[in-house]
Design goal:
Elements lengths: L2 E6 L4 H18 L4 E5 L11 H10 L3 E3 L11 H6 L19 E4 L5 E8 L12 H11 L5 E6 L3 H11 L5 E5 L9 E2 L5 E3 L6 E2 L8 H10 L12 E10 L5 E10 L11
Parallel strand pairs: 1-2, 2-3, 5-6, 6-7, 7-9
Antiparallel strand pairs: 1-11, 4-5, 8-9, 10-11, 11-12
Amino acid sequence: MSLSVVMLGDIVGRPGQRGVCQQAGALRERYNADLLIANAENAAGGSGLTPAIFHKLISYGVDGVTLGDHVYRQRDIVQLLETDSRIARPANLAESAAGKLFSRIVSSNGDAVYVITVLGRLSMNGPAADDPYACVDLLLDELTDAPVIVEIHAELTSEKQALGHYLDGRVAAVVGTHTHIPTADAKILPGGTAYITDLGMTGPYDSVLGRRKEAVIKFMTTSMPEQFGIAEGDIRVCGVHVSINGKGLADSIERVEAKADMSLPPFVGE
């Protein structure tokens, strides 16, 4: 068995959704992708995910969705987290937190991958997180019948790199999200695990991390409160393509970046 997987970084608001709508099919064709997985924790107005947006992304060609520190920002997502195998909460939250600890995402030909998301613990302002290393160790003892992809949703590059090396040779890929800046370090680690520090953002790059730059600059230069609305310019879809071999490790990883065509009319549902 071999699997071709495209993973996309944090989808931000309607501009990010628009980018996925335009580019999902082209990316699947370009990489002959069996699966397309996306982080959508900023898809609902920049914070959280709703069931309606989840199903919209699925209709665009996304097979599975990951979340991060805004997992519960939209409360109506909880039931979906409990029932749908294509989405899961970060695994290292409190044991009593709602939702599954991992997702099992199945391709059209029946091949599957497990996806585990863990939150970083350093310089994060979200919910308190338990030890991501011990958390993944426990889950790997259980998830033995298909390749595993681990997403670390974290602020610090050092924390992401450390987890990548810790899991090298035991999972197919370790990918970072949360900082919205694509990094240039996509590589195969010595043990055969694909790694990148951050997938980048799927959203408007004429911005500060997807927010209107004028508002962010005004706040930073005056200290006065501002509404950080979602920006709209220079929409890009960013992530990686990973080729997973029959041993559950990676043969290759490369960065993905595609620009949305803003001359096209808005997509259905925008």
